[in-house]
Amino acid sequence: MSSNKNDVTQSITQVIAASSLGTLIEWYDFYIFGSLAVIIGQQLFPSDAGASALINTLAIFAAGFIVRPFGALVFGRLGDLIGRKYTFLLTLVLMGGSTFLIGLIPSYSSIGYAAPILVLILRLVQGLALGGEYGGAATYVAEHAPVGRRGFFTSWIQTTATMGLFLSLGIIVLTKNLIGAEKFADWGWRIPFLVSILLVGVSIYIRMKMHESPVFTKLKSEGKISANPLKESFQKKANFKMVLLALFGATMGQGVIWYTGQFYAQSFLENTCKLDFNESRYILLWAIVLATPFFVVFGSWSDKVGRKWIMLSGMLLGIIFYRPIYQYFIDATNVKEFQKTELKTATAPEITRELVKGEKDSIITTTSYKTLNSGFTFKESVVKIIPDDVLAPLPEDKTVIADVTLPGKTYVIIILLVFFQVLLVTMVYGPIAAFLVELFPTQIRYTSMSLPYHIGNGVFGGLVPFIATLVASFPGSTPLSGLWYPIGIAALSFIIGAVYIDNRGDRNVMD
Q1: Which sequence ranges are marked TM in the entry (predicted)?
Q2: What's the CA angle centered on 138, arms 67 and 131, to 5 degrees?
Q3: 488 confidence band (pLDDT: 50, 70, 90)
Q4: Cα–chain-centroid distance for residue 247?
Q5: What does the domain layout of the chain look like in residue ranges?
Q6: Strand pairing report for 343-346 and 362-372
Q7: 87, 445 contact by CB (below 8 A)
């Protein structure tokens, strides 16, 4: 018996390793774009586009999420008809190829608006591919896992999304530090896109050696494969009810918790709190390292106590604590206010003068680097416009803060607060793969679980950075206004899930 158990464990370990590596690389490919949104926006749009360049770039990023449900339908159907293995092998090739090509697209200065259009097309291909990847990987692992440990084994797949983000951030920071900030902003940002082709090649080699899921193989040998997975998933009342429950009671709330804790947190620290490029990414890297093991902890725990309340507790904690956390981010990094009483040193100002584009007015920018007694350092630029008409009134000077670095205590507290947000991600995301595969019969599992997952994550979750940033830019809004979107979605999902989801743990529904 011991020998058989070891053989099963080894087989499951190989399945998880092969599935996880490919999924990790696909998430890496998907996330480097979001991590470099500011720099990519400067490359894809006119130099005078200002804040609209970031919003437009986030919209392109969001487009990849919006098409993920369509990828779930296309590749989910293939997965239920021809098998899990070859379907998510195809999605890996599409994702890797698109990512590599994004690294080759010329900038706006070379080909004009063709640049963002081409990148948008490639982002759509990425979104379609990722829409077919996750359902295949999660289904493949779950159909190999023994009863009683399905949450534990599928939770390893759940770590890949966060580890893909970690890998993307790590390669971005390493590349920037090696070649310098100026070269990275010019052409070095392309390197993380281009090196992904090497990672994809390794993963394709490993996946080619994988075998088909035993559950699907048995189904196929018995001639019980669904002739029309889409029709069975969405026209049969019982199955469609489960699709809606999975979406509105689980994945919708899980999606906004995921993207708030890991994407919007970084975007907020960099764009609202004006943290240095590396500083904001190091914070997220530390938080990810500390929190990632909890995917497995909560996935395994869900085998014993059920999936429902672990996932819903993560949503509820986000609803309660998001606004206080982000308010602390604002208060703790307000160097513009701190320097009134804490200024320690300031470098000699650097003064530049340039003409306003298309006009005769001049812009004079005075830049200096400052250090506060509390340990903050930052760059302060005072922008003064000198009208060509000497009788015209002088516009008010504009002060711009950038490249803020934090003192030790504040740095640690912010890491812990981001870690708490990623911990909530592990609560909602760790058990959800097992939860989804157990909702649907084998014949339509790939299709049925993929659609609600990718609508919840791709549409509701993936739009968090774009919608939150857009809402916060409206007249009369505050920096915290954007948080009402993820809080509202999580609250709705919590209520539906609390009322309608059964709190059952691992159960044998894989026949």
Answers
A1: 27-45, 51-74, 86-105, 111-131, 152-175, 187-206, 242-261, 281-302, 309-329, 411-437, 458-477, 483-501
A2: 10
A3: very high
A4: 18
A5: 2-333+408-500, 340-401
A6: antiparallel
A7: no
The two most distant CA atoms of the chain are separated, in Å, by: 94
- 3-state secondary structure string, 426-484? HHHHCCHHHHHHCCCCHHHHHHHHHHHHHHHHHHHHCCHHHHHHHHHCCCCCCCCHHHH
C-alpha distances in angstroms, 248 versus 237, 257, 500? 16, 14, 10
Is 299 within 8 Å of 151 (Cβ atoms)? Answer: yes
**8 Å CB contact between 473 and 55:** yes
* Size of the chain, expressed as the number of residues it contains: 511
Sequence-distant (≥ 6) Cβ neighbours of residue 261 within 8 angstroms: 318, 418, 421, 422, 424, 425
Are 399 and 336 in contact by the 8 Å Cβ rule? The answer is yes
Alpha-carbon distance of 265 to 287, in angstroms, equals: 11
> CA 202, CA 470: separation in Å to the nearest integer?
39
Residues 69, 119: Cα–Cα separation, whole Å: 20
Q: What is the 3-state secondary structure (H, E, C) of 155-214?
A: HHHHHHHHHHHHHHHHHHHHHHHHHCHHHHHHCHHHHHHHHHHHHHHHHHHHHHCCCCCH
Token pair of 139, please?
A: 């289904």
Range with lowest mean pLDDT among 178-182, 222-226, 414-418: 222-226
Q: What are 442-462's pLDDT values in tens digits?
A: 777 777 777 888 888 878 987
DSSP bridge pairs for 185 = none
Q: Does residue 477 or residue 83 have the better pLDDT?
A: 477
Structure-token match 């990623």, residue found: 422
The residues with which 363 forms a beta bridge, in sequence order, are 354, 385
List 377's β-bridge partners, or say none. 371, 405
Residue 310 and residue 299 in contact, taking contact as beta carbons nearer than 8 Å = no
What is the rounded distance in angstroms from the CA atom of residue 270 to the CA atom of residue 338? 18
Q: How does pLDDT run across 296-325, given as a tens digit for each residue?
A: 999 999 999 999 999 999 999 999 999 999
Q: Mean per-residue pLDDT for 385-406?
A: 76
> Is residue 142 within 8 Å of 154, Cβ to Cβ?
yes
CATH architecture of 2-333+408-500: Up-down Bundle (1.20)
The DSSP call for residue 442 is G
Percent of the chain topping pLDDT 90: 27
